[in-house]
Amino acid sequence: MILMGFTCKPRRVSITALHAGTTADRNTMIEYLRTTGKRFLSLKRDKIRLKDCLLMWDNARPHTATDTREFLTQRDVEPVKQSPYSPDLNLCDRFLFRKLKHLLREDEFGGHEEATLAVQRR
Predict the structure, then answer these.
(1) Is the dihedral of CA 67, 21, 57, 13 positive or negative?
(2) Domains plus CATH for the chain?
(3) 50-94: pLDDT as tens digits
(4) Are 80 and 53 in contact (CB under 8 A)?
(5) Are 19 and 112 contacting, i.e. CB atoms less than 8 angstroms apart?
(6) For residue range 27-50, what is the model confidence (pLDDT) as tens digits?
(7) Which residues contact 101 (CB under 8 A, 6 or more apart)?
(8) Do you know which InterPro entries this protein is assigned to (predicted)?
């Protein structure tokens, strides 16, 4: 599973690949938000605060968990809820995953680690 965060202006992408066989839970989501927030703030130019990011989330349990909501509330972050019947409005599905699919379409991977490295290189 891959967790991705991106900003439109300036263009920044944060990619975190989970180890094979693991799933995202509320703790994984909070840690991802914490490390992504630190990564965006550590940029030398165009620092980005987590509360300035647009979080488009569906109704997945890690997104709606009480701990996750409290973490975001403490940081004054308001996620945008995606309509369950409008996946075409999800920016990741429309742009980011399509672009990754295009970039990686001819690559072959020997396992999870190789795929992770290929995604992170792009």
Answers:
(1) positive
(2) 2-121 (3.30.420.10)
(3) 777 777 777 788 888 999 999 988 988 888 777 766 666 666 667
(4) no
(5) yes
(6) 988 888 888 777 777 766 777 777
(7) none
(8) RNaseH_sf, Tc1-like_DDE_dom, Transposase-MT_Hybrid
